[in-house]
């Protein structure tokens, strides 16, 4: 039996796509992300992953799926109602992301093919047209093994943040193809934190213990914030230059309230509600300085979510790619680094309006476990999501 290996490497205004379709895709990615979160994050103290990267790569792969395999993939990804338009929306999203000037945002797709196997030409053409994917052959004679050129490609595309993703001997003669999506997001806060104000402070861990961690402080920051008394969660937006992209922190009111928040966000549409109803306020903000790196093997997770046939040697139908193939692995690695100047995944700068009146200052102190989302405010796409528990 022949296999396909799917690899995801991550370091998060449409011109012609219908706005309703873009919102439908963003909603599908959000719901997919929360179902995925329940599988990969609940047992981890700190985690980061890219809903955009995982969803877009699997949607691209679905171009070659047929029959029940295609049906299951589209159902799990939540894209059935979008039909073939989903691929055009992703094309325009890729083009827009790669044309950003106020932040460094680079996303791309590549396909590495075993030249010993016949590949349906239409699949290569469609992935090139819709996902701007570059196709190349796997070099089985490469110095360091066939993994090295692919690892080098990923390292370059992620600005040397992700290295040696593929382990030695992970590619063999039965590998038909590797599909790769890379996403790199680097930016500066709209209003940077002052390094000299960062200091060790108490962070309340689950279970009642306390840990000293580096906390960044910003006095009288003008930003969007929401006090949600119904769901007992406060949400703060920390924008990057240009304000199109922002890091959102969803902070439960209770120190041990993160489980209730995670359960709430399982409900369809609830995650999108986090980003509505925020108001522009003067905020006194204290948040952790942190770096998180996560590597995930997603094949069992995706099977549990309902994508069964795609991973079955006997049942998979990827005849739109080649005959007798199935997905063997889905590897995902993500990194996020939140510092005083910005985040390796975002950037922003906006002039602050002055006021003669004395502002009402709203406190926002993230000193206990919370969820975070790095989001495109224009399309609604969640580029990165995760949990910080200290």
From TrEMBL:
Residue span, Serpin domain: 34-389
Protein name: Serpin B6-like
Gene Ontology MF annotations: serine-type endopeptidase inhibitor activity
SMART domains, per the entry: SERPIN
Organismal lineage: Eukaryota, Metazoa, Spiralia, Lophotrochozoa, Mollusca
Keywords, ordered alphabetically: Signal
Keyword presence, Signal: yes
Family: Belongs to the serpin family.
Pfam families in UniProt: Serpin (PF00079)
């Amino acid at each position: 039996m022949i296999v396909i290996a799917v690899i995801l490497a991550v370091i998060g205004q449409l011109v012609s796509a219908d706005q309703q379709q873009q919102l439908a895709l963003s909603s599908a990615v959000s719901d997919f992300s929360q179902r995925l979160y329940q599988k990969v994050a609940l047992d981890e103290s700190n985690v980061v992953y890219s809903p955009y990267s995982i969803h877009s790569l699997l949607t691209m792969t679905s171009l070659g799926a047929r029959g029940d395999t295609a049906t299951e993939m589209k159902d799990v990804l939540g894209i059935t109602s979008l039909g073939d338009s989903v691929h055009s929306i992703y094309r325009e999203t890729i083009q827009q992301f790669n044309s950003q000037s106020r932040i460094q945002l680079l996303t791309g797709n590549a396909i590495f093919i075993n030249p010993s196997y016949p590949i349906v030409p239409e699949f290569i053409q469609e992935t090139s047209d819709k996902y701007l994917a570059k196709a190349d052959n796997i070099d089985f004679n490469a110095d360091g093994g066939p993994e090295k050129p692919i690892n080098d490609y990923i390292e370059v595309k992620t600005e040397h943040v992700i290295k040696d993703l593929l382990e030695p001997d992970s590619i063999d003669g039965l590998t038909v193809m590797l599909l790769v999506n890379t996403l790199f997001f680097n930016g500066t806060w709209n209003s940077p934190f002052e390094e000299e104000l960062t200091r060790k402070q108490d962070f309340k861990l689950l279970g009642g213990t306390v840990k000293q961690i580096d906390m960044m402080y910003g006095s009288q920051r003008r930003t969007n914030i929401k006090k949600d008394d119904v769901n007992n969660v406060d949400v703060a937006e920390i924008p990057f230059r240009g304000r199109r992209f922002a890091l959102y922190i969803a902070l439960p009111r209770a120190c041990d309230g993160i489980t209730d928040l995670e359960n709430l966000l399982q409900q369809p549409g609830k995650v999108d509600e986090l980003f509505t109803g925020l108001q522009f306020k003067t905020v006194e903000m204290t948040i952790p300085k942190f770096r998180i790196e996560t590597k995930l093997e997603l094949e069992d997770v995706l099977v549990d979510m309902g994508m069964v046939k795609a991973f079955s040697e006997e049942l998979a139908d990827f005849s739109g790619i080649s005959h007798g193939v199935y997905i063997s692995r889905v590897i995902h690695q993500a990194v996020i680094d939140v510092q005083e100047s910005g985040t390796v995944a975002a950037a922003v700068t906006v002039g602050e309006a002055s006021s003669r009146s004395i502002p009402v200052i709203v406190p926002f102190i993230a000193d206990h476990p919370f969820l975070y989302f790095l989001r495109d405010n224009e399309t609604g796409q969640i580029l990165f999501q995760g949990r910080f528990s200290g």
